[in-house]
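In response to reviewer comment 3 from the previous cycle, which asked for concrete evidence that the modeling workflow produces usable outputs, we include below a single protein chain processed end to end. The sequence was submitted unchanged, and the resulting structure tokens are shown without manual editing.
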Amino acid sequence: MLNLTHAVRWTAAASMLLALSGCGKQNESAPPSGAEAGELIEAFNGQMCSVLSTSVLDSGIVIDELVIGTGEACPEGATVTMQYHGTLADGTVFDTTRDDGPRGPWLLSKLIDGWKQGVPGMKVGGIRRLTIPYQLAYGEAGSSSIPPKADLTFVIELVAFRP
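The workflow returned the following structure tokens.
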């Protein structure tokens, strides 16, 4: 009986570690829906990441932390190299680096306001999902691949930055 109790505890501990580990290869089970801690988000190269925490900026941007990253935090106005996957509210992909790798370097100050506000504080290797209101994306006019007043969702990974 003692060995069975020990095995149950070991299995529970291993399950908790897997749930808290952040990203891993895609599992055959479908990701659950809902914006809550533990939700699974597809990041890059088949990685599935758990939402670690969610915050909402005063501007309305929703930041879901998927992977924290390491090293110093990216400051405002830095030059960044990113990997990203951008979708409209209906799930339509309008731009992605999933097939061709990171892009940049870009001056953060030259990007949409949603990225200017959502990227600072990330660490290299960190992954976030940004849900950006249209006013902080491409506005009322939209762009060639983005309709007017389109709220956008990006899964982004900070690959590198220079202050």
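Residues 23-162 form a domain with the Chitinase A; domain 3 fold (CATH 3.10.50.40). We consider this sufficient to address the reviewer's concern, and the full set will be provided in the supplementary archive.
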